[in-house]
Each structure stands twice: as structure tokens, then as C-alpha cells.
């Protein structure tokens, strides 16, 4: 069934207080929920509670057990026909967490109990009004075996605990902040923890704990340091303080997403907690810092102010992603962070916008809410917030967020409430801007320039393609940050243009020389840019622009002038190639001030971006041409690549400071090119780096370069890595992924072989993503011309449909844009999607993706 925003109605009942009593047991768990229920509107209507995938044991109102005739129950709800206007409801349910492979509700991971309730998992724990606009104060009591579960955690502050005489013990937690059920959490198990503390700006001392399995406990320090930085940053930048005595984080190996912001008790995918220099790469460290921050920032943007309904998901996610992006930018290189975020937006969100699941940042309808934890909600949502900040300025934005937090604290609100806060705090009109929330699709802007009489005229047109359910679009309001550079590099003007019309002209006079335009600085709007700047103009930007994003983008555009026609024609244009080669040479030989940026500048546009820009995607061609260009650059620039490699030193400083990380990044970028020459001397160099490495960054980079090359001892290297790391699941994730994305043909047998490796498990989402998910991104191997890759994918999805529908749905989404591919890929994908559609017993998650894909 489809749920519509227009059908939203306020809840008829509220549950201001709830007490949950869990008897946790390996075989089955008994839950007694005691709720204070109050009618808030209507009269005489029945109470309808959400509930699924559990056993109702008993039901009582004001202490009196209900007979079977007094309620009705179906697969998704419980209806109590006659209820008073205010009463106590007691619900007893029985759960089987050890059999819960969907990882939603109460489940077990490595034998420990944990929960995931967002979006609709709480209804698998007890019958409840499982909707975000019903806020309750929770008291939770946990009882479990002392030996199996020495640790008993829930939301809020601990209030009491004790021993029973049957080898069990108990703990009670109380969370004073009213919250929706999706923020409920419990954890019970055999866990160790590291502890620290943080003193808030107003002087409250907060205890900070990170829990992990004992063998991982020495990998929690970076997460702890990141948490403290996040807490300080949110005070400094947004004036937001933490509001409980304790903040707990728990790392679990089996988790559907990245992490979850449950009040006072975050549950994390261990990938975003555990790190040391032996097992985690610099990228992993950055990922941990940003996800720890993201979940912490939710304490205000999500928990204190929450969502009225799930159509408002971007209210908390878009805003919180924007907050974590800016936090990371402040902690490291702002330009590199922006480049990575734009790359990811283009790879995932632009793809989504161009496919059958395209939806606005505030969707109008959905079938399965789990399918709407999307790049559009998260990443495009963050871009929309970023544009508002650009329009009102940093100070005006802070006034707006202050007003928002102040006005809506303790409430469940809408994206409209956020926009209104920004508007009212700045006395501006964002009526047209709101279209970013309701219109889907990626807008394009086309820029034309002319220069006469010392005047530069920029004519800018915008358009947005049709998307499902939206044939025609109105023009967006968007900030376009620009600057004008003289050919000498001098910046003569910088300003933010505001585009509001389908077509608009902007004039800049008094320019004795024709300037070079630095357009869309900082990627100030999430659009595609069509702007034919000459090679010379692009090279001026590469050399002189003080906006890191534009400098990088200019280099990318120069490379696209080589790659896109080459993909189309099947051959490389020599003139275009020389221009890219010369630009690379210049970058490699000029004095370098920013190694992290240089590493980014030396990367060709990703295969996924090339696919995104293609009219009809030729996946194999994209992969082959890109590889050819890498190899030619490698051969032609071997010596400068080697010089830069050697300058970084074999074993750079072990540490995580920006300088060391930048040096590793540049070193490993150049190593990739050196290995791509195919020369034995560079195989030896990489092999030496692999064996001598003192960080996982250096080890994995050398490993990847060799595994992706024609290195004759590849298999021995793969085996060596395996022997060394087979006991570390997060490192094995990398081992699977690097093999799955190797740019070579006939990889499918290897993938199938890897699925029977003892460290692989189809029940573990990280493993599915790192092997099967990574394989689907392999433009050469996945897109076999006999369709075997697609058949393999659908076989996996059919298997996962019963094990974990959320993961199954994500996986099949990778080919839901099948119409964008050239033949024969398009028809072969369609055939497999049809086969899947004809399966019996598809979960609603999978059904929504497949039916929309085939419509
Ligand atoms: N709110 C979490 C985050 O972004 C995501 C959890 C969503 N989980 C899910 N199963 N849909 O931080
Ligand atoms: Zn989030």
C-alpha cells in the first residue's frame, strides 16, 4: 500500500509515559509494556496500535485483562474497540531475537542483544503508536543472565540496578526527555568499555562510554576523541549542549546502516567505531569522525526537535548531514571534504534523480519507508540547507537555527517549520526556494558568456528534466557563487548571484581584460553545469583559483573533454590526451603547497561519474577507456610520478595529522599510476610497500594497486593478506571489496568462490555490501555481455529477500536505472528484474523498488 503525505492526520491518542520491562533470554524475550494512554481527539473511536512479527501474550486495561472478544489482531495491528479517554494499558509480548535476521526491532549480534527501531522497528517489540509524532517519557527495566549479559543499557540516565537469586541481574534506566519510539534502544551483553568525560559549556560533567567486544576494546580511542570534538563543536558553532549525565555508544558487527542516534545510547555499525593504524585506513578514520559527529548532532537535530512524520525525514537527516559535513571541513581540509561530498552526491544522488526512484527531498508518498533513507533525503537534503545558509549568510543562518531549536524544542515538526524559522529570523521570502523540497530531479544550468566594451555578460538558463509524477518543473531559486579572474590569475571580483528565472543575464562592466569565470564556487548549488570554457580558461582556473573545489573541477572538466568523446568513439583523441598529460605534468613538477589537494587533482573522473554523464551508458567501454588513459598517463609520466612518490618517503609518519595523511594520500595516488605501467620494478616497489607498511592505508593501497594490475603473483598476495587478517571482519570487508572491484573480465567465478569463504556471511550486511555490493559497481566485470552478472545479483536478492529485505532492496536498487544503459545491458537487466518481480513472497521493500523500476 502507498502512504501519502496529504493523508497525514494527528494522532487520536497519545502515550505520555511508558514503562518497559524486558526479561531477556537466549531462547525468547518477554516484554511487559505499561503505558499511560490519553485520547487527544475524536471520541469513541477504537485504539489502533502498530505491531508485527511478535507474539501477544496478554493485554490489560487499568489492571483488568481483556478477553479475546475485546480486541482484534492482524499481521500489522491491534485494535481495542472500547477504551476510556485516559487509561493504563499493559501489553505483554514475546520476541525471538536470535531468529531476527532482518536486524530491525530486538535482535542479536555476536550473541549480544541490541535494537534498531528507526523507522518502524519498535512495533516489533510491543504494540504501540509507532509514529514519530507520539512522544513519551520512557522508564526501562532490563533483566538478564549475569554471565551472558553483564552489561545492561538503555536510553537516558541509569537509576538503579541489582542482583536476583537466580543468576540474573537487573538495571533500570530513565530518560526524562519525551521521545518518539524510533529513538528507543536497549543493549545487553558481554561488552567491555572505554570511558572518558566531557564538561559542557554550562559546567555539567557528562560520562562518555564506548562499548565493544573485548577483543576490540583498544580500537575505540579515535571514536572517543571524535565524540569530544563533536560535543565542543556543536557548542561553539550552534550553541547546542548535551543534556543527560551519560552518553553511551555501542559497536555491533551486524547493522543495516551506519549508526543510530537513540537518545543517550547510540548503536553503531562497528565499521564506524573501531580503528587502529594496523587495521583502519585514513579514510576509515575520517568516516568514523564524521559518523560519530552525525549521530551526536542528532541529539538536537532529530531528538530534541524531531520529525512529525516520515515525509519529514530530511528535516533531521539533511540538516544533520550538513552539520557533520561542516564539522569535518573544520577538522580537516575543507576543500578536499567538499570535493568528496560532491563526488558522492554525483555518484549516488544524481543517479537516483535520473532513475525510477527519483523523489523530492520531502517525498509525497512511499510504500516502504526504509527505501527512503536515500541519498536524496540525506545528501541533497544537506545541499538544500547549505544553499539557505548561502542565501542568508553564516550569521543569519545561526539566527535561524537558534529560532528553530528554541521554538520547536520537544516537538515533532516539519521541513516547513525549518524554512519558516530561517525566513523569520532573516526577514526574507523563501517561497520560491521551497521548490527544492517538492520538485525532484537534478537541475541543469547552461552558462553562456560574451565580452564586449569591457563588459562581461553571463547568460544563465536553468532546466530540470521530468521525473516520475512530475512532468514540468518551475524554476528554482539558487545561489551561484562566482568570481572573475584575470588571465594572470588575479581575482577581480567575487559575488553570489541569485538565479530565480528560467533565463537570466548578469553584467559585469569596467573589465579592461576578458576575465576567466570561476563558476559554482564551492559547488554552491546541486546542479549540473553546462559551460563550455576553453582549455586555456580551465587551465587558468587549475593554476590560480583560490576555490579548491573549482580548481579540482576545472581539472575534471579538462579530463572529461578527453574521456567522454573517447568513450563514445572507442578511441582516444591525441590532442585532448596531450592537454591532460601536460596538465598532469605541470601539477607533478610545480612546487606543491597542498599534497591532499594535489592527490585529488591527479585523479581522473570516476567511472560512476562518466556513467552519470553518458547518454546511454556503455559500462564496459567506460571502464576500458578510463583504464587506458590511466595506463598512458602512467607510462608517459613515469618519472615525475616516481619522483613525487619517492619524495613522500617509504614509511611516512605513523600519525593522523593532516600533513601525514596528505602525504600518504599523494604517495598512494602516484603508486597506483606506477603500478599501472606494468613494469616489474614497480610491482616490486608496491610489494615492498605492502610488506613494510606501518599503516593500513599504505598496506591496502599497495595491495589494491597490485590486485588491480597484471601482477603475476596476485593470488599469492591475496592469500597472504587473507592469512594475516582473516580474524578481523572489518579488514576482511576490504579484502572482499578490493577483489570485487578489480577491473578485469571473468570475475564472477571468483566472486562466487568468495561467497563460500568461511569469513563471508550473507547474514552480515557489511559483508553483503563489501562483496556483492562492490561487485555491482564494477563496470567491467558486473556488466558481462551474457547477463550472468545480473542473474547472479537477482539470485542473491532472492536469497536476501527472506533474510533481510532492507539489504535486499538496497542491492537491487543498483540496477533500477536499467533504462539508462545501452543494449544489450538494458534488456538483460530488464529480464532479470522481471524474473525477480515474478518471485512469490517478495517483501514490500523489494516490491517497491522492482515495481517502480519496471513501470
Ligand atoms: N537515523 C540513522 C542515521 O542516519 C539512520 C537509521 C536508519 N535505519 C534504517 N533501518 N532505516 O543516522
Ligand atoms: Zn542521521
TrEMBL record:
Xref: Pfam families: DUF3458, DUF3458_C, Peptidase_M1, Peptidase_M1_N
Family matches, as SUPFAM superfamilies: Leukotriene A4 hydrolase N-terminal domain, Metalloproteases ('zincins'), catalytic domain
MF (Gene Ontology): alanyl aminopeptidase activity; metallopeptidase activity; zinc ion binding
Record domain Peptidase M1 membrane alanine aminopeptidase: where: 223-433
GO BP: proteolysis
Every Peptidase M1 alanyl aminopeptidase Ig-like fold domain range: 441-532
Domain Aminopeptidase N-like N-terminal: 35-183
EC number(s) reported in the record: 3.4.11.2
Cofactor(s) essential for the protein: Zn(2+)
Catalyses which reaction(s): Release of an N-terminal amino acid, Xaa-|-Yaa- from a peptide, amide or arylamide. Xaa is preferably Ala, but may be most amino acids including Pro (slow action). When a terminal hydrophobic residue is followed by a prolyl residue, the two may be released as an intact Xaa-Pro dipeptide
Domain of life: Bacteria
Peptidase M1 alanyl aminopeptidase C-terminal domain boundaries: 535-855
Entry keywords, A to Z: Aminopeptidase, Hydrolase, Metal-binding, Metalloprotease, Protease, Zinc
Function: Aminopeptidase N is involved in the degradation of intracellular peptides generated by protein breakdown during normal growth as well as in response to nutrient starvation.
Similarity remark: Belongs to the peptidase M1 family.
NCBIfam families named among the record's database cross-references: pepN_proteo
The protein's name: Aminopeptidase N
Classification of source organism: Bacteria, Pseudomonadati, Pseudomonadota, Gammaproteobacteria, Arenicellales
Amino acid at each position: 500500500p502507498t502512504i501519502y503525505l496529504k493523508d497525514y492526520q494527528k494522532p487520536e491518542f497519545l502515550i505520555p509515559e511508558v514503562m518497559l520491562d524486558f526479561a531477556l533470554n537466549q531462547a525468547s524475550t518477554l516484554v511487559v509494556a505499561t503505558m499511560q494512554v490519553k485520547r487527544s481527539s475524536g471520541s469513541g473511536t477504537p485504539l489502533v496500535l502498530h505491531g508485527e512479527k511478535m507474539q501477544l501474550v496478554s493485554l490489560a486495561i487499568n489492571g483488568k485483562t481483556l478477553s479475546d472478544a475485546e480486541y482484534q489482531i492482524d499481521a500489522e495491528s491491534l485494535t481495542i474497540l472500547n477504551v476510556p479517554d485516559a487509561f493504563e494499558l499493559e501489553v505483554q509480548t514475546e520476541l525471538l531475537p536470535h531468529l531476527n535476521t532482518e536486524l530491525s526491532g530486538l535482535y542479536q549480534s555476536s550473541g549480544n542483544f541490541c535494537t534498531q527501531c528507526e523507522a518502524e522497528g519498535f512495533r516489533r517489540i510491543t504494540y504501540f503508536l509507532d509514529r514519530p509524532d507520539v512522544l513519551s517519557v520512557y522508564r526501562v527495566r532490563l533483566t538478564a543472565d549475569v554471565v551472558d549479559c553483564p552489561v545492561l543499557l538503555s536510553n537516558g540516565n541509569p537509576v538503579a540496578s541489582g542482583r536476583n537469586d537466580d543468576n540474573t541481574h537487573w538495571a533500570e534506566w530513565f530518560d526524562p526527555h519525551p521521545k518518539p519510539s524510533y529513538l528507543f534502544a536497549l543493549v545487553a551483553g558481554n561488552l567491555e568499555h572505554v570511558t572518558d568525560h566531557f564538561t559542557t559549556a554550562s559546567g555539567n560533567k557528562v560520562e562518555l562510554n564506548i562499548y565493544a567486544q573485548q577483543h576490540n576494546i583498544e580500537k575505540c580511542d579515535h571514536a572517543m576523541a571524535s565524540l569530544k570534538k563533536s560535543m565542543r563543536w556543536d557548542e561553539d558553532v550552534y550553541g547546542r549542549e548535551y543534556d543527560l549525565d551519560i552518553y553511551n555508544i555501542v559497536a555491533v558487527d551486524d547493522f543495516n546502516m551506519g549508526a543510530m542516534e537513540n537518545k543517550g545510547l547510540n548503536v553503531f555499525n562497528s565499521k564506524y567505531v573501531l580503528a587502529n593504524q594496523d587495521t583502519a585506513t585514513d579514510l576509515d578514520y575520517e568516516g568514523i569522525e564524521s559518523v560519530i559527529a552525525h549521530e551526536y548532532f542528532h541529539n538536537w537535530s532529530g531528538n530534541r526537535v524531531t520529525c512529525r512524520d516520515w515525509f519529514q525525514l530530511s528535516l533531521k537527516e539533511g540538516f544533520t548531514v550538513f552539520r557533520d559535513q561542516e564539522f569535518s571541513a573544520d577538522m580537516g581540509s575543507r576543500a578536499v571534504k567538499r570535493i568528496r561530498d560532491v563526488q558522492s552526491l554525483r555518484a549516488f544522488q544524481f543517479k537516483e534523480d535520473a532513475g525510477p526512484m527519483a523523489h523530492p527531498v520531502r517525498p509525497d508518498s512511499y510504500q516502504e519507508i526504509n527505501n527512503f533513507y536515500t541519498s536524496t533525503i540525506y545528501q541533497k537534503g544537506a545541499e538544500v540547507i547549505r544553499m539557505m545558509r548561502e542565501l542568508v549568510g553564516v550569521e543569519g543562518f545561526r539566527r535561524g537555527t537558534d529560532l528553530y531549536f528554541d521554538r520547536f524544542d520537544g516537538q515533532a515538526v516539519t521541513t516547513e517549520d525549518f524554512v519558516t524559522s530561517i525566513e523569520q529570523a532573516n526577514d526574507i521570502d523563501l517561497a520560491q526556494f521551497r521548490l527544492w523540497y517538492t520538485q525532484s530531479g537534478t537541475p541543469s544550468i547552461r552558462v553562456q558568456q560574451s565580452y564586449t566594451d569591457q563588459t562581461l555578460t553571463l547568460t544563465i538558463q536553468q532546466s530540470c528534466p521530468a521525473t516520475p509524477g512530475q512532468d514540468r518543473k518551475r524554476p528554482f531559486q539558487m545561489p551561484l557563487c562566482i568570481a572573475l579572474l584575470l588571465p594572470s590569475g588575479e581575482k577581480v571580483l567575487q559575488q553570489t548571484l541569485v538565479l530565480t528565472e528560467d533565463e537570466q543575464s548578469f553584467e559585469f562592466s569596467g573589465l579592461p581584460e576578458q576575465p576567466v569565470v570561476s563558476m559554482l564556487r564551492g559547488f554552491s548549488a546541486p546542479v549540473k553545469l553546462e559551460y563550455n570554457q576553453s582549455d586555456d580558461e580551465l587551465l587558468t582556473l587549475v593554476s590560480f583559483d583560490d576555490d579548491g573545489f573549482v580548481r579540482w573541477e576545472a581539472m575534471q572538466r579538462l579530463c572529461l573533454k578527453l574521456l567522454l568523446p573517447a568513450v563514445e568513439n572507442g578511441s582516444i583523441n591525441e590532442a585532448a590526451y596531450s592537454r591532460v598529460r601536460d596538465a598532469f605534468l605541470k601539477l607533478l613538477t610545480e612546487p606543491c603547497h597542498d599534497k591532499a589537494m594535489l592527490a585529488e587533482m591527479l585523479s581522473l573522473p570516476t567511472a560512476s561519474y562518466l556513467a552519470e554523464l553518458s547518454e546511454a551508458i556503455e559500462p564496459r567501454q567506460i571502464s576500458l577507456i578510463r583504464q587506458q588513459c590511466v595506463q598512458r598517463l602512467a607510462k608517459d609520466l613515469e618519472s615525475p610520478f616516481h619522483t613525487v612518490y619517492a619524495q613522500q618517503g617509504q614509511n611516512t609518519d605513523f600519525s593522523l595529522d593532516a600533513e601525514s595523511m596528505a602525504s600518504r594520500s599523494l604517495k598512494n595516488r602516484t603508486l597506483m599510476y606506477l603500478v599501472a605501467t606494468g613494469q616489474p620494478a614497480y610491482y616490486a616497489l608496491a610489494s615492498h610497500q605492502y610488506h613494510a607498511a606501518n599503516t593500513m592505508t599504505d598496506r591496502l593501497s599497495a595491495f589494491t594497486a597490485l590486485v588491480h594490475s597484471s601482477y603475476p603473483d596476485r593470488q599469492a598476495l591475496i592469500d597472504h593478506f587473507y592469512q594475516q587478517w582473516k580474524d578481523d571482519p572489518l579488514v576482511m570487508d576490504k579484502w572482499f571489496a578490493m577483489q570485487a572491484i578489480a577491473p578485469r573480465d571473468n570475475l564472477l567465478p571468483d566472486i562466487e568462490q568468495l561467497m563460500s569463504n568461511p569469513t563471508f556471511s550473507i547474514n552480515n550486511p557489511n559483508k553483503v555490501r563489501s562483496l556483492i555490493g562492490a561487485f555491482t559497481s564494477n563496470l567491467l566485470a558486473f556488466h558481462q555481455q551474457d547477463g550472468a552478472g545480473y542473474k547472479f545479483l537477482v539470485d542473491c536478492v532472492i536469497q536476501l529477500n527472506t533474510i533481510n529485505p532492507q539489504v535486499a532492496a538496497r542491492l537491487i536498487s543498483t540496477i533500477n536505472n536499467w533504462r539508462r544503459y545501452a543494449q544489450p545491458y538494458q534488456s538483460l537487466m530488464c529480464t532479470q528484474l522481471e524474473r525477480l518481480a515474478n518471485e512469490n513472497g517478495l517483501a514490500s521493500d523489494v516490491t517497491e523498488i522492482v515495481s517502480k523500476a519496471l513501470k
